[in-house]
Amino acid sequence: MDSGLVHSLLSLLKNTIPEVPFDMNFLDSLKTSATGLSAQRLRMNLITSNLANVNTPQAKEGKAYKRMDAVFAAQSPQPDFGQALADRLRPGLTGVEVVDIREDNRQPIMKYDPHHPDANEEGFISLPNINVVEEMVNMISATRSYEANITAVKSIKDMASAALDIGKT
To answer: Are 35 and 95 in contact (CB under 8 A)?
Structure first.
């Protein structure tokens, strides 16, 4: 093929294909999914702890268990100078991070149980205000998010494998 024709086709393609401001390689994609996996694993651990303590009363001398929930935020890249400069030219977010674990401030549930060792002088025990149905819905949501990240990792792995197979043929 004539080199002038190739050059013309390349410039035509450059002018017709829109420039994508954010490009990711396989490792960036894996890192993004890995942060999502870590965040959802922590969320599942918090939900499990909440469910395990749903019937844990406040001890007479102790502090009551309070429901905990993770707060997520988009994670910005923390690269070296060269990468920071390149990212300024093509900004993007690279994952999710847990920025806080908050305790629920709802009032505890007071249950009448005069024979319980932790009952107060009126016979009430203080239980954490944890809604089991709400926690199960949160668990399903966290599981689905975790599965979506696993699917993304598998797709990235399959694409990288297919790219390597191209070089073999």
So the answer is: yes
CA 113 to chain centroid, in Å, comes to 40
Query: Is 71:102 a contact under the CB 8 Å cutoff?
Result: yes
How far from 169 is each of 52, 85, 162, 164, CA to CA, in Å?
55, 37, 11, 9
pLDDT level of residue 17 (50, 70, 90 thresholds): very low
Local structure of residue 53 (DSSP, 8 states): T
What's residue 120's pLDDT? 87
Residues 6+ positions from 54 with CB-CB distance below 8 Å: 127, 128, 130, 132, 135
Q: How far apart are CA 139 and CA 42, in angstroms?
A: 11
Per residue in 136-160, pLDDT (tens digit) is 999 999 999 999 999 999 998 898 8
